[in-house]
């Protein structure tokens, strides 16, 4: 019998309904939220807009480093890999095995790699004068230098030994056009090759005075089999990350050093820093505006509910219960608004991602508690002054109609 009573008592405790005070508290909160639809709609909308902007900007913040770095890669490579230069031996550069330079470049993360190629330079004789010959993986060059403006076409395959690309100034000075045949002869006239001009490129840089062919053909013409001066790589990384990746190459490949191209990598970091700061400032301003809007709405609600608050206090409600009621109302409104805001914020992030980067923004679950926390802090901060006013309501004055 005792066991049955204990079991029954335990089951009753587990299913025990809310007490009178809890029921009254819940009823007051529900009635407050359902009877003041217009004012709560304003507060709900303000928090939802704030949550949407915060969620969108924080989602962009965590994607922007990668997406912006991908955009900046259209301006050329950002890491150079070369043989180590010994200052004690005069600091003269030397040739290295092209395969070693290529292996060093391929050791960079494949998912961050845009393109990489070794380079071999030499002075050669063309049909109408001397020129600087550059040998490279021309299939990779298209990824490394997408900013080149090319008349004609690119050399599409790394094994193509029949075609060349010529810089605009060199083509103008020698009267070369797309489709013209050109004979390339090395300086001691021991080796030569005939190629066809497939493309003429405008780069705005030194390449406008150079002729480009595939690396294997350049090694043959210059009598430097398997050699290259250096390699260049374009990777998706900001300045600090590029430094770290370059340092890892020097550790893994003795005799090889890698360093970021400062002008490019520092520009990456400066642009990203400014954009990150701008987004943080916009999010802060939106949160401040949200706080002020919610504060004004709750202040109006407290003034409207002064008779109710006075009556509650007259029949025994404590200041703590009044505070708890307003905090519960604010928290519930905030939860609903944030749920709406996260959906709107994700859609806004996609619009911004497509407009700025032509890419979709990844949904990050970690942004949900962050957005909720920030909006909840803003909403509760907005509720402090109205709640303080509610606590200061004097029941006697309310009952006298003052």
TrEMBL record:
Pfam families given in the database record: FtsX, MacB_PCD
Tagged with keyword Cell cycle: no
Membrane topology, as annotated: Multi-pass membrane protein
Transmembrane intervals: 40-62, 278-302, 322-347, 367-387
All residue ranges annotated as the MacB-like periplasmic core domain in the record: 43-250
Major localization listed first in the record, in broad terms: membrane
Domain ABC3 transporter permease C-terminal: 281-392
A molecular function GO annotation: transmembrane transporter activity
Keywords recorded for this protein, A-Z: Cell membrane, Membrane, Transmembrane, Transmembrane helix
Subcellular location(s) of the protein: Cell membrane
Record-level GO cellular component terms: plasma membrane
Keyword Transmembrane: yes
Family designation: Belongs to the ABC-4 integral membrane protein family.
Entry protein name: Putative ABC transport system permease protein
Organism: Consotaella salsifontis
